[in-house]
């Protein structure tokens, strides 16, 4: 029984959100780029719906940021420990949005968008396992500055932190972006 428990714990540790090892990114030719949009200087009015969406995205991101520095814990949803899907799940739940708990189930929700259309509050999905065939990592977009997309997520090695999609590892593991608001 003890042996089976140890094997299961080892299995879950290996399949957890985030990278287990650093991946060489210079051997891959795939890159994701985001073009900045041109700025229109004419005054525009935001619709009430768009204003509510932006306020909701700000609230969700603010909730997620409060978990920065939290250590990684597989299946965790508290400040004592958090995994990637737990971070997104809790951030949405605290803002009255019910959503699936696991990253691969989250990836089935919302509207798929192009990476150059990503906005604050959108979700980014990744495959971080060489052998795995399904999505196993999720991040929440916290800022888009031209072609730099910043997202908050939980990694096995560094816990909850903000990363950039421009980083080689995350760029090569990126699968898709989804809009949920």
Summarize the structure.
The chain is an alpha+beta fold and 181 residues long.
Give a topology summary.
Layout lengths: L1 H14 L32 H18 L11 E2 L2 E2 L1 H10 L9 H4 L4 E3 L9 E4 L10 E9 L2 E8 L3 E6 L3 H6 E6 L2
Antiparallel strand pairs: 1-2, 3-8, 4-5, 4-8, 5-6, 6-7
Helix pairs in contact: 2-3
Overview of this structure, please?
- The protein has 181 residues and is α+β, with helices and mostly antiparallel strands.
- The protein has five helices and eight strands.
- The chain is globular.
- It starts with a helix and ends with a strand.
List keywords for this structure.
alpha+beta, six-stranded antiparallel β-sheet, 8 strands, two-stranded antiparallel sheet, about 180 residues, 5 helices, globular
Principal-axis shape: globular
Strand order of the main beta sheet, please?
3-8-4-5-6-7
Mean pLDDT: 83
Strand content of the residues, in percent? 15-25%
Broad structural category: alpha+beta
* Oligomeric state: single chain
Name the helix and strand elements from N-terminus to C-terminus, one letter apiece: HHEEHHEEEEEHE
Indicate the percent of residues in helices: 25-40%
Number of helices: 5
**Terminal-residue CA separation:** 45 Å
The biggest beta sheet, please?
A: 6 strands, antiparallel
Low-confidence stretches: 20-45
Overall number of strands: 8
Any idea what the radius of gyration is?
Answer: 17 Å
């Amino acid at each position: 029984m003890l042996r089976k428990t140890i094997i299961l714990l080892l299995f879950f540790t290996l399949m957890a959100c985030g990278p287990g090892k650093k991946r060489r990114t210079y051997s891959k030719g795939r890159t994701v780029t985001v073009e900045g949009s041109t700025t229109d200087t004419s005054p525009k009015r935001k619709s009430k719906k768009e204003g509510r969406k932006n306020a909701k995205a700000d609230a969700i991101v603010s909730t997620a940021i409060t978990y920065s520095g939290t250590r990684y814990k597989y299946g965790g949803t508290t400040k004592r420990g958090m995994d990637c899907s737990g971070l997104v799940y809790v951030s949405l739940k605290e803002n009255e949005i019910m959503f699936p708990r696991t990253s691969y189930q989250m990836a089935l929700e919302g509207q798929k968008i192009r990476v150059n259309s990503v906005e604050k509050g959108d979700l980014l999905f990744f495959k971080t396992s060489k052998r795995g065939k399904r999505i196993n990592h999720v991040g929440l977009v916290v800022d888009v500055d031209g072609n730099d997309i910043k997202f908050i997520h939980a990694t096995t090695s560094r816990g909850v932190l903000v990363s950039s999609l421009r980083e080689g590892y995350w760029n090569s593991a990126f699968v898709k972006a989804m809009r949920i608001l």
